[in-house]
Amino acid sequence: MEKLIITAAVTGSITDRSKSPHHPMTPEEIAAAALDAWRAGAAIIHLHARTEDGTPTQDLQSFTELVERITTAGCDAILNLSTGSAGGRASFEERMACLALRPEMASFDCGSVNFDTWTFLNPPGFLEDLARRMLELNVKPEIECFDTGMIFAARRLAERGLLCPPLHFQFVMGTAGGIPAGPEHLVHMLAALPPGATWSVCALGRGQLPMNVMAIMFGGHARTGLEDNVYYSYRVLAKSNAQLVERLVRLSHELGREVASPADARRILAISTQPSGTRYRMGERDEQAP
Ligand code: ZN
Description:
By secondary structure, the protein is of the alpha/beta class. The chain is built from ten helices and 14 strands. It has helices spanning 27-40, 60-71, 92-96, 124-136, 148-159, 183-191, 208-218, 241-254, 262-269, 276-288, and strands at 6-9, 44-47, 49-50, 56-57, 78-81, 105-109, 113-114, 119-120, 140-145, 168-173, 198-203, 221-224, 231-233, 236-237. Strand 5, helix 3 (92-96) and strand 6 form a beta-alpha-beta unit. Residues 281-290 have low confidence and may be disordered. Bound molecules: zinc ion (ZN). The site of zinc ion has 7 residues, from loops.
């Protein structure tokens, strides 16, 4: 079986200190959490930006500083920037701003979904714009699917040439308005994948660990991290993102799968071999060119 790619989703835009005192909130804390998760074995770091007071933001400058903090520390993980709405704060245009950094990967939420009290909007026009922008800038879309229909929506975009195979999917399971976290639902989603696709699973709260283990067993990849779940075990808070990554590394080895390095992950996902930091610095040079 192919090596396991572990993604660490270190902060998100919904969870905060009210859920766990260990949640990284400031840019400094988010960068430190990303570095610890990478050292623990995460090949991909899924990043949301926050301001100094912890407010989620899609501001380009905030993403720039965050990426800089992480890459200048020598981290070669694939950086996967969120194009989410910063908890409903960002406009569609603001959501795409971080692509200017030419990250190796960015989230592509392939449809709208109801959360507890609000709707995460991803209408067709926005998805077309986002797909075109990612194609132009050579950013690999991580196609987040909150339900099975979103896999077919991605397949239609691929048929139109807006998403390029091999497609990489992230199944987001256990949200209030999306597909529940459970083995039968995972099997259902897998049956909908196009040939040659790669896939990973993340699940909220108590669904995280069992769905991660199923992904390891079924040959997929796994996302963990405090964005999705703040607990380590029943009523016991995780101390850090790294602690959750370390457990996945141990489980993967026990189940007979090696863990992918960032270089392995680039090969498995067919991402160009330039690390994020190099791409970022190239982008900066381009802007200064006459
Ligand atoms: Zn996220």
